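Working notes for the structural subgroup meeting. M.R. asked for a predicted model of this chain before we commit to crystallization trials. I am recording the input and output together here so anyone reviewing the notebook later can reproduce the run.

Input as submitted:
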Amino acid sequence: MHTFYYIKNGFLFIIFLLGFTLSYSQGTRLLREPTISSTHLVFTYGGDIWITDLSNNRTQRITSTPAVESNPQLSPDGQTIAFSSNRSGNNAVYTVSIKGGDPKRLTWHPSSSSVRGWSPDGTKVVYSTSRDSAPGSVGYLWTVGVNGGPSTKVCEQWGYDGSYSADGKQMVIDRVSRWESEFRGYRGGQNTPLIILNLNDWSEVLIPNNKSRDIHPVWLGDNIYFLSDRDGISNIWSYNTTNSVLKQLTTFKGSDVKWLNGSGNRLVFERDGYLHTLDLATNASNQLAITVVGDFPWAETKWEDVSKNATHASLS
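Returned structure, recorded in C-alpha cell form:
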C-alpha cells in the first residue's frame, strides 16, 4: 500500500497509488483461449491470434483479418499453431508458423470445423465437426494431416473435445457441447462424464461424474486435467489414469476458470479475463502480465445507421 499525506491551506490530502499501479501491471484484459509450449504462449484477442515469447514477454499479432480466428493449439514441437477461422465463410482448420506468415488451409468441407489439438507425433490436427452426422447435428472428432488431404474420423463416439494420451493409443473425450456455458449450477443432460476411450478395442472408462460440468480435458503424462464445477465454482481437477484418483488442484472462489490447456509440466488457463499458468510440480499459479498493442479498426469511432436494428423506443 503506497499512501502519501500532505497538508495545504489547512486541508489534508491523501493520495492512493495502489489501484493504478496494480491495474497497469496486470496488462491487457479479455485475453482468451490460451495454449502453451515450453517457450511460447498463444491466445486470442479481438478475433485474432497473438503470441507471447515467454523469455522476454514480447507479444505480437499472428493474424490480422476481419474474420474471427479461434481455438489456437500449439503443436507438440511448439513451432506451429493450428486454429479455426471463418475467413472463408465457415469455420475451417488452418495452420501457421509461430513466426507468422501465410496460414495454410487444411479442411474444405462446408460444415464448421473447430480445432481441438494435435496427435502426439505432431503429424495431424484434431478437430470437431458435425459433418456426416445428418439428419442430426452431432459433433465427432476428426484428424487431418499437416499437409492437408482427406480427413479421418477418430471414432464413432460423439466428440466435442478430446486429447490424446502420450502414446496415441487412448483419447479422453468430452462428448457434447453446452448450449449455455455460463449456466452456473446446471445439472442437466448435457453434463456427461468425460470418457477415456481405448482406440484399439473401443472400450471406455468414465471419469467419475455426478452431473457436474467437466470440460476442456488435457492429457499430460499419467494425468488427465480438466475443468469441473463439482465444488460450485469451475476449478482445475486431475484424474490419475493409473490409480483412478481424483484431485482438485485449484480452489478459486467467485469467478470460474474458463479455459484449460497445457504442455510438459505446466498448465495455462483463463480467469477474470487474464491468463494464468499453473506449475504442476509445486501447484503454484501465476497471473501473466501481457500487454497487447496494435491497431484495432473495429474499435475506431465511427457513425453507424442503427435505425434498422431498433426494436423499441421511448421518448423523454
